[in-house]
Amino acid sequence: MIVSSHQKGWKIITQRSHGLLAAMIAHQYDIDLPDEIMIPALIAIAEHDDGVHETLASQNLTDADAPRNFTVDDGNSKTDITPMLSLMEIASSKSQLNGLLASLHVKFLYDGDKRKTDQRLDNFLKDQEEYRTSVLKNLNISKKYANHLYRLLEWSDAFSLLICLDKIQAKERKMEISQSPDGDMNTVHYKINKDICVEPWPFKSISFEVFYEFKILDQLQFKSIQIFNEVYKDAKIQREVITFSQ
Question: Which pTM value belongs to this model?
Fold first, then answer.
């Protein structure tokens, strides 16, 4: 979950809502891909964090019984690979390309120093390396092309998170997004009218709208994840609309 404090309590954005926003941003990106590539890629982008039922995941409450933002360490020394296994089952059952992009995202997130001390994580990532090699061979595409496609996912993911985490700075101050599929390091800033502007402009349209949905919870603490889930389900769904303009 993406959790931030709000004057009325907690603002909760699910990873799934953030993923849909990422896909909407990717859909606007000016990239020349055939439908048989672009459609699975957009689905992979929308579903790249869909491996867990967030509002019933016990680690999503802090020790103080508050909703835990995904950036806060849950204190576990071992990485829970169950969500990754679920993600890979979902993605690979759609198509090899969906599975490939999901596997590259898992690699991006977890292929670091922690695998040296976590045997289960290391074994999982080794299995993913073998899986990607098999898919690349079956699809007859190169690692370079696969990484080009993955850059669209990672760039859109990073951009969506900047929006959902409210990290884009005010007063037209520019900040980097990530390296785009074209190799550019784009910057983003709010214009005076609160529209979002990106430089260099990478999109097909000169102006468009996207959105994410969220909920506000006025209860600050929850004795169990089940109670949190019930309160969350009963909360009103709200929508934030964002305008991009060149």
Answer: 0.93
pLDDT digit string, tens, across residues 33-92: 999 999 999 999 999 888 777 888 888 999 999 999 988 876 666 788 888 999 999 999
| Closest by Cα among 21, 73, 29 to 49 | 21
Q: How many domains does the chain have?
A: 1
Domain of 74, in residue numbers? 2-245
